Amino acid sequence: MTAPVFVVDTVPGAGSFLLDGPEGRHAVSVKRLRAGEELVLADGRGRWAECVVVSAEGKDELTVRVDEVHEDPEEEPRITVVQALPKGDRGELAVETMTETGVDAIVPWAASRCITQWKGDRGLKALAKWRSTAREAGKQSRRTRFPEVADLMTTKQLAALLADADFAAVLHEDREHPSGTLATAELPAKGSIVLIVGPEGGVSPDELAAFEAAGAKPYRLGRSVLRTSTAGTAATALVLGRTGRWS
């Protein structure tokens, strides 16, 4: 099993380092790490260090020896999922599974047919929960570069994001749509890929037209229709396999 990951603001250089605070408590009281065991310190932005536990003190302090420091480059093509706001806690489920799968960025989208609305303090709390979920799922899946979770966007705001993409797709349930399937679409080997996941009620005709005008064509995943909380994960996995990032 690979070494557990703990997040730090700045990855230290070689030598001794004290891991304390919430991460130290998790290492000592939850993971119960002891002298001689290995762990990874990561900043979530690609920089990480191989470490060995020297000693544990109290309930939240772990002294480690930093042996080697590494820097993981961003992978290509970069995969962004635009996720329409699901109902209840399915938003966190979508973020968690997409992070575990390997998505690079997640954009919450206020689609016209979304039942859930992010407004005021409630919206800020929901966004913070998505970001926290991405961080924890990144740690759990042993990632050293966690996905970025953007601020909530409207359909109009997504146009600029789509214009800069090398490939953009709207995941659509229409089996007869001329664009065909994501499994047969021509994907770039580098650059950026944006996948748009609509709400349970589907992408409206006006939204579909706006996205097509910005360069995003509709594609279907398969014969079955996935829920909005699982479609992004399935599409990400398909793209990771087809572009060689899972090779």
Descriptive account of the structure:
It is an enzyme of class 2 (transferase). Its EC number is 2.1.1.193. Pfam families: Methyltrans_RNA, PUA_4. This is Ribosomal RNA small subunit methyltransferase E. This protein is of the alpha/beta class and 247 residues long. It has 2 domains: 3-69, Ribosomal Protein L25, Chain P (Beta Barrel), CATH 2.40.240.20; 76-239, SPOUT methyltransferase, trefoil knot domain (Alpha/beta knot), CATH 3.40.1280.10. It contains 6 helices and 11 strands. The chain has a 6-stranded parallel sheet with strand order 8-7-6-10-9-11, with helices on both faces. The longest helix is centred in the middle third of the chain and has 21 residues, at 120-140. It starts with a strand and ends in a 5-residue tail after the last helix.
Major β-sheet strand ordering: 8-7-6-10-9-11
- Please state roughly what percent of the residues sit in beta strands, choosing from under 5%, 5-15%, 15-25%, 25-35%, 35-45% or over 45%: 25-35%
Briefly note the structural class of the backbone.
Answer: alpha/beta
Unreliable runs: none
Order of helices and strands: EEHEEEEHEHEHEEHEH
What is the mean pLDDT?
94
CATH homologous superfamily identity of the largest domain: SPOUT methyltransferase, trefoil knot domain
Q: Outline, from the CA principal axes?
A: elongated
Instruction: State the major sheet.
Output: 6 strands, parallel
Query: What is the CATH topology descriptor of the largest domain?
Result: Alpha/beta knot
User: Helix count, per DSSP?
Assistant: 6
Radius of gyration: 20 Å
Multimeric state: single chain
State the separation between the terminal residues, measured CA to CA: 20 Å
Instruction: Using the 3D structure, state the CATH architecture of the largest domain.
Output: 3-Layer(aba) Sandwich
Top CATH class of the largest domain:
Alpha Beta
Per DSSP E runs of 2 or more residues, the count of β-strands stands at: 11
- Tally of separate domains: 2
Subcellular location: Cytoplasm
Domain Ribosomal RNA small subunit methyltransferase E methyltransferase: 75-239
GO molecular function: rRNA (uridine-N3-)-methyltransferase activity
Family: Belongs to the RNA methyltransferase RsmE family.
